[in-house]
Design a protein that fits this description.
Strand content: 15-25%
Shape: globular
Number of helices: 7
Number of strands: 7
CATH class: Alpha Beta
CATH topology: Cathepsin B, Chain A
Number of domains: 1
CATH architecture: Alpha-Beta Complex
Distance between the termini: 12 Å
Order of helices and strands: HHEHHHEHEEEHEE
Largest sheet: 7 strands, antiparallel
Helix content: 25-40%
């Protein structure tokens, strides 16, 4: 889209300054693929498919802008990472800015999704609010993939593989019993064992490098069986090619 197509709401987002450079380049490429255990000759002949987020995004995390949001801001931070992917995908990163947590709240109040008291609160947001925000600011539609409680996340592997094949976006994932919102930047599967590439925003402090985040487990492959089966999950999939 041309600059003239940019929404006024997005143009109104202010320029931010950070105490250190946020990590961006080569995040998904830096993580080694997980080793999938082979239990039979049939498994050894199974085909593997790996699909990753295509294009740069910036790793936003707790307190990265000096605002203390530990314990409640994880979905906001994942939304910021998703917004950075959208801006780079559309080549708007030199023209537009990433919304702050307060600007995200103001956006949700402006579209009447939230009451006025929401601005300045520590209220959590989820996949729907992420959808509303990126749609309002950037005119990017999203699909909400709902995984019910006690459902097997692996049942949705085919749909996630297709999404990453077709769009290669950065996905936001949130739940109820598992309330730790996270980004999903890829999937690796052989049909029987599947892993999601988690981008965890719960890091505090200034990360030294992407390798530092990987060694501490903030960027990691996680088996679909390791997600909390007593929790429902909503995944927000941005539809932008």
């Amino acid at each position: 889209m041309a600059q003239c197509d940019v929404k006024d709401e997005a143009k109104a987002i202010t320029l931010k300054t950070y105490a250190y450079d946020l990590l961006r380049h080569g995040i998904v490429e830096s993580v080694a693929l997980p080793e999938i255990s082979l239990t039979s000759d049939a498994d050894s002949n199974a085909s593997y498919e790996t699909q990753l987020t295509r294009g740069d995004f910036t790793y936003y995390h707790y307190g990265c802008d000096g605002f203390h949001d530990n314990g409640w801001g994880c979905a906001y931070r994942t939304l910021q990472s998703m917004a950075s992917w959208i801006l780079h995908k559309r080549q708007w990163h030199s023209q537009l800015n990433i919304p702050s947590l307060l600007e995200i709240q103001q956006t949700l109040v402006r579209i009447e999704d939230k009451p006025p008291r929401f601005v300045g609160s520590r209220d959590w947001i989820g996949a729907l609010e992420v959808f509303y925000t990126v749609d309002t600011l950037y005119d990017v539609p999203c699909k909400i993939l709902h995984v019910t409680k006690n459902d097997d996340l692996s049942k949705h592997v085919a749909e996630l593989l297709k999404y990453f094949r077709d769009y290669g976006g950065l996905v936001m994932m949130g739940g109820d019993m598992d309330a730790a919102s996270k980004g999903i930047a890829g999937i690796h599967s052989n049909g029987k064992e599947s892993y999601l590439l988690v981008v965890d925003p719960h890091y505090s402090g200034g990360p030294v490098s992407i390798e530092d985040l990987i060694s501490k487990g903030y960027i990691r492959w996680q088996n679909t069986k390791e997600f909390v089966d007593s929790s429902f999950y909503n995944l927000c999939l941005p539809y932008l090619k």
